[in-house]
Amino acid sequence: MTKRSYPRRVALEAGHVDIRPMAAADEKAVLTFARGLPDHDLLFLPRDISEAKVLKAWIREIESGAMQSLVAVRDGAIVGCGALARDELSWSPHVGELRVLIDPKMRGQGVGRALTQEMFALAIESGLEKIVAQMTVDQTAAISVFEGLGFRAEALLRGHVRDRSGKRHDIVVLGHDAAEVMARMKAFGVVDAAARKA
Question: What local confidence, expressed as pLDDT, does residue 198 receive?
Fold first, then answer.
């Protein structure tokens, strides 16, 4: 399988975005981006990335290779970011979690779909056998994007997160059995044909 190269320019109806790996130099811009998101958008994350110390820890994880992250940039500003988290020391080293956040002003323009597809491609390239994603049940557009990539609902966690006002929200867990899909593709010769074209 060919390794993905970055930066990658993606043409959208309303212009284009550049997708590239997140770096330590992006820390301030990502913090600004995160603080501009509605609190509700952050609820599915295990940690609040609008906190400077959390973002610093995220950067350290990227630098150590424990996490892969991409940012979507338009006109010099970060309009989206994604992360692929996995824990090699857990009982599930074969599982990765995709997390994607998009600037509300850029939604409905294809940025979320493009960034999610790039993150998904990185997950497949990493050799993960299973990929999961979590979001609140009302994030229907995001759920639709993931379902378009073959993710299916696996669990509903009722009242799993609590927002700053104390209100509880349900989380849906979506899963994708990448190993099964790759096995089917190999059986039909799709993977071999793609390798010959590359």
Answer: 46
